[in-house]
Amino acid sequence: MILYSKWVTLALALVLLSSITLTRLVLVIGFIPLVSSKDKLKMGKGENSTTNSRIRKELTWEEVRKNNGVKGSDKWIVINGEVYDVTKWSKKHPGGSKVISHYAGQDATEPFEAFHAKPDFVGKFMKAIHIGQMSPDEYQQKEIVQDLRVLKETAVKMGLSKPSYFFYFCIIGHILAMEVAAFFIQYYYGFSLETFVLSVALMTIAQVQGGWAQHDFGHLSVFKSSRLNHLLHFFTMSVMKGASSKWWNHLHYQHHAKPNIIGKDPDVRQEALFVLGETMPVKVAKSGTSTMPYNHQAKYFPFLGPPLLFPVYFQFMLFRYIWTRREWTDLLCVSVFYARFALTYGPTVGILRAFMLYEATRILESIWFTWVAQSNHLPMDIEEDTEKPWVELQLAATCNIEKSAFNDWFTGHLNFQIEHHIFPTMPRHHLHRIAPYVKSLCEKHGIKYTVKTMSDGFLDNLK
User: Fold this and answer.
1) Share of the chain above pLDDT 70, in %
2) What is this structure's pTM?
3) Fewest CB within 10 angstroms: 4, 207, 264, 343, which?
4) DSSP assignment string, 155-217
């Protein structure tokens, strides 16, 4: 008992010290503007590869498409008919350089409006990188773009941009309850097969639901303040789950910008083990760079994909990202997660058994996440970038899983993946309310709107 008391005292002291340090860091980070005053001043002075002498009133698509960032060319994007040179600004872009670069040489109007909660406010800082406008003869927005704007206005009038704080309080509350219950089972009843299974089940639920929660904060869909969303995203992702919020942003926003697009969506960059869709197998076969037995991939996918994604691949990529990007704050917060886990479970069940609890949880979490996330995307179109309009692009790459109380909870409301991709900042508990309107929009424009049962979604992964 004396030895155990020393362990508990040490654990509490370290956790308290880490929490104080983390709180100070997070408070500092939380109040750093996404665009610094220095950057705003530079933009105001026109820091850009394009000088005022190059500004032209009208540009053509031929000129814009030449500046697609390929082979060292500049990066131009079009937003509502206005042309911007983001060559240098892309490196400072809060969403990451690759997200904005994926639309170089293309019309970025719809993703710009989808990703920015206040596009008019952001537009004020874009004057310095404005280089001209599209010729009226060449720039005609499709009817579906106007219809989507009307639908967004309808959603705002319906109050679908306003979150329920009680909903998110319950989400965070049940996650913490699962974490505490898993620990006290080991603390009071000791380590046995029964308690091991029960604790792992509870921790897996907590980690998966924590993953859905951080997803909401990462999409800035909970609070009006972007800083507060980033703050909670930082906490839930790094401290509660032991991952990097910046790493998640780097990957996930690319996925939303160009879902299922080869070379642009990181989620389909899997040719080392799997070939997906109709285009990738042909491309890989012509390259002759792989000897994987792809004809058997449906057999080895359940054993290599879902169970190893988190504990092996993500674990490696997480620390690789932190190290290569020098994200030391993320490293500190991730370390707090591992210290918290080791200092609570280590003295209780021993380091080896604590490691077993951790690995079992990560494997089950990985299986749960992979089957859910991929059922919405893997069976859909996976192709090269053909510059499809926003709604057509999202519907080609996503599908829904039927609504039910269990499905909503089990998937973190990502069973409404279509609506989430079209309205990425909408609070998830409202997605089912906008779904009928999205379906009507798709029917009007002849776009296929796919809804499956969960079992069909899982089976389609293998098919």
Assistant:
1) 88
2) 0.83
3) 4
4) HHHTTTTS--HHHHHHHHHHHHHHHHHHHHHHHHH-S-HHHHHHHHHHHHHHHHHHHHHHHHH
